[in-house]
Amino acid sequence: MLTSEATAAALLTAEHASPTERLSAADAAMTRHSVRSYLDVPVSDDEIHALLELTGRAPSAFNLQPWRFVVVRDQEVKNALKEAAYGQKQVGEAPVVIAMYSDMEDTMAHLGDVVHPDLAPDKRASTIAMLEKNFGGMTPEARAIWGNGQANIALGYLLLIAKSEGFDTSPMLGFQADRVKAILDIPAGATMTAMVALGRGADDGFRSHRHAVERMTSFR
Ligand SMILES: Cc1cc2nc3c(=O)[nH]c(=O)nc-3n(C[C@H](O)[C@H](O)[C@H](O)COP(=O)(O)O)c2cc1C
């Protein structure tokens, strides 16, 4: 397991990335596009680890961090995922496909993992009791929807961080969730957040088309 410092070092020594090549958040936001064609260039374990460590820095309500990842490199598994994704070619072509899901049942079963370690024991216990009461009172379906809302924050982080670190991505929801869960042994009660094809793009994707600030904002 890499430490944060090792993560930063891995990113800085990785072939594709140097401090001068890394994009700012603003530059990554402006230049990121969905890319659906990939070069046959591998992504190393250290690079994936670093990307997911940075993705895991995403905030979540009560710090529950319900997001989970399955990193797929095996070509046969990618081929099966491609079929479950209606033949979307980037699933078979990208060197890595990250299946992202939210698992509130796992979160609820391990609330001690999310409570801040610096809290005094009595405060830890009362925080866990509060979370059990808040979320235990919800139906599993409502909990799952709530958790997936949080997981989407991490999805945004992953897409932006990947671009910043020199990778292209294609986020997808166009797949049969039950088939993907079965292929990857993802718990039935979990919610698929997205599949993300990741690697070095063979093209730049389409020019982005976005709302102007005035179209999506009102000022009072
Ligand atoms: C959650 C999510 C699911 C998506 N699902 C698909 C998909 O299944 N297939 C696909 O080709 N693009 C998919 N997209 C890509 C969107 O169409 C794309 O992000 C949008 O048109 C904006 O283009 P851009 O990503 O190039 O900026 C998805 C994007 C998101 C965020």
UniProtKB/TrEMBL annotation:
Domain Nitroreductase stretches = 30-200
* InterPro entries reported for this sequence: Nitroreductase, Nitroreductase-like
Classification via Pfam families? Nitroreductase
Task: Kindly state which keywords UniProt assigns to this record, in alphabetical order.
Answer: Oxidoreductase
Any idea which GO molecular function terms this record carries? oxidoreductase activity
Question: Sorted alphabetically, which CDD domains does this protein's record hold?
Answer: nitroreductase (cd03370)
Family affiliation: Belongs to the nitroreductase family.
| Name by which UniProt lists this protein | Nitroreductase family protein
Originating organism: Gemmatimonas groenlandica
